[in-house]
Amino acid sequence: SSGINAEYGDEAVRLMGGARVTSCKSAKDRTAMSVTYESVSVLSREHCLVASGFSNALSALRSHGVRPLNCKKNTGSGKYAFNGFQLKILPKEYRPPMGSYGGKIT
């Protein structure tokens, strides 16, 4: 783990009325992890998603939402293109669910 807690950074930016951008080269891998984390954070904060449902919602969006379709369109593979090293250094909040990665590295 990188020791970074994405939740606190996102929350600080939001409270200050700021904006932030996360993008990778082909706008699919790290971008997908950021977008899905942000989406589930909004569900939790604004729509009373219970804390125990956070990781399930995150996993569902990353496995069955539109982000794997974006990967398929960009690379021909519906999997995120993270390798073992990249997975180890991603903050835990940005790690894809088992079985959803291993696609073509672009």
Can you describe this structure?
With 106 residues, the protein is an all-alpha fold. 53% of the residues lie in helices and 0% in strands. It is built from five helices and no strands. It has helices spanning 6-15, 29-47, 54-64, 66-75, 84-89. Helix 2 (29-47) runs antiparallel to helix 3 (54-64).
Helices and strands in order:
Elements: H1 6-15, H2 29-47, H3 54-64, H4 66-75, H5 84-89
Q: List the secondary-structure elements in sequence, H or E.
A: HHHHH
Instruction: Look at the helices and sheets and give the structural class.
Output: mainly alpha
The major β-sheet equals:
none
Q: What average pLDDT do the residues reach?
A: 85
- Give Rg in angstroms: 14 Å
* Individual helix count: 5
Helix-residue proportion: 40-55%
Uncertain stretches of 5 or more adjacent residues? none
Give the percentage of residues in beta strands: under 5%
Defining traits:
106 residues
Sum this structure up briefly.
With 106 residues, this protein is an all-alpha fold.
